[in-house]
Amino acid sequence: MSGFPKSFLWGAATAAYQVEGSPLADGAGASIWHRFTHDPRLMIATGDTGDVACDHYNRMESDVELMKQLGLQAYRFSVSWSRVLPEGTGRVNEAGLDFYRRLVDRLLEAGIEPLATLYHWDLPAALDDRGGWLNRESAEWFAEYAGVMFRALDGKVKKWATLNEPWVVADGGYLNGVLAPGHRSIFECAIVSRNLMRAHGRAVQTYRECGAHEVGLVINIEPKYPASDSSEDLAATARADAYMNRQYFDPALLGTCPEELREIYGEAWEDWSAEDLALCCQPVDFVGINYYTRSVVRSSDTAWPLFAEHVVQEGAPHTETNWEVFPEAMTRTLLWFRERYGDLPVYIMENGAAFSDPATSDADGILDEDRCQYLAEHIAAVRDAIAAGVDIRGYMVWSLFDNLEWALGYAKRFGIVHVDYETLARTPKHSARLYGQIIASNGAELEHAA
Ligand code: GBH
C-alpha cells in the first residue's frame, strides 16, 4: 500500500516562455515577456532573456524521448498565445499551432498524458498595446484564443487549465512591477485581478461549448501562519491569506470576494457586479494547486498595502530562492482547500525547489540530495492529505528542466534535469532518478527515500 490511488498521475511541468526559446520563430508575435526581458529598464536583475532558454522549441522530440526515459506519466506545458495568434486575436498562425500539435502527438505516442495550460504569463504584446488585462475586452480575447486551442487539440488533450497563478500575474505584473508588463499600481492590480477571473470564466464557458473533457484553473497557495496570537498579527495574517490564497479561488469556486480585500485595496476597490461574479464562478472539473512554501506573517505599519510582513524563520531550512522548506503546510493547505471549497478533484500542478547544483556528481549525474529530500518530503505530505480524504489525482514536479526563472534569470535552478546553457545538454539529476522510482512504485519508494 503506497497511499496513492492506482490512477494517480505523476508528471513534470514547464511553461512556454521559460523553456521554449525561439520566441519569434515561424511567424510568432512577441509576448510581454519578450518585451520585458529585452528592456534593460525592466529586466534589471539579470538581463537574461528567453531567446534561447532550453531550446525546447527545436529539441521537442528528443525532450519527449527523455521524458519517456525518466518514466513520466504526464507532462504539463503551457501554450504561447502569441505563437498561435500573433496579434492576440484574429489571424491564426498555423506554424505556431503546429508546434503544439506535434508536441501533443509525440507525447501521446510516448504514452505521456499532455496537460495544457493556456496562460502562463506571456500575454501577446499586441494585446498589451490594447490595454492588456486592464481592458475588459481581455475576457473575450482569451475566450477566442481558448476556443482555437480547444478545437485544435481537444480529444487529444483531456485536461486544460485556463490560468496559471493569477495572483502572480496581478501582484508581480501590475502592483510590484517585478514581472511583465512591469507596472506599479494598486488600481491596476484590482482591475487585472477581476479581468483575469472573467477571462477564466469565459474560457470555461467556451470549453463547455466545444469540449467533452476537463477544464480547471491553477492557483498558487501559500498558507499564512501568524507570528504571534496578538490581534494585530492575526488580522495581518488574515489579510495576507485573503490577498494570496482566497482572492482568486473565492470568486471562481464560491462566487464571492473575501471581505478583507476591501480594506487592502482601499480606494482602488470596486465591488464586483453580480454578472462578473457569476461569470467567474463557472463549474470546473478540477483545480490545480501550486505549493512551494508557507509564510509566517506579522503586522507592520509600513508594509503597504497589506500592512503585513513576512517573518524570516532563522535557522529553518530554506531553498536558494529563500523560501522556507515546510512540507507539513502542504498537507494543511490541501485539507484547508477541501474544507473551504468542497470535494473537488485536485492536481498538484507545481511543487519543487531551487537549489544550486553541488560540485559533486557521479556516473548517475548530479547529486542534488537537497532536492531529493524536498521532493520526498512533499510527496509524503501529499500522501498524508490523501489519507485524510482529499481527492488528489496527480502531482507535477516543478520543473522538468532548469529554465528561465522569470526576473531571476537562469541562476536559479528548479530542474530535475540539469541544462547546460552553453551546450544545451540535458543531464538528469539524482532527483530525476529518485522521481522515476517513486513513479514506478506509485509512491511506495517514499518509504526508503523520505
Ligand atoms: C511558480 O510561481 C511559477 O508558476 C513558475 O513559473 C515558477 O518558475 C515557479 O513558481 C518557481 O518560482 O518569499 O517566502 O514569501 C511561484 C509562486 C509566489 C512562490 C511567491 C513563492 C514567495 C515566497 N511564488 N512565493 S516567500
UniProtKB/TrEMBL annotation:
Belongs to the glycosyl hydrolase 1 family. GO terms for biological process: cellulose catabolic process. The active site is at E165, E350. Keywords: Carbohydrate metabolism, Cellulose degradation, Glycosidase, Hydrolase, Polysaccharide degradation. Substrate binds at Q18, H120, N164, Y292, W398, E405, W406. It catalyses: Hydrolysis of terminal, non-reducing beta-D-glucosyl residues with release of beta-D-glucose. This is Beta-glucosidase. One of its GO terms (cellular component) is cytosol. GO terms for molecular function: beta-glucosidase activity. Its EC number is 3.2.1.21. It is an enzyme of class 3 (hydrolase). It comes from the Bacteria.
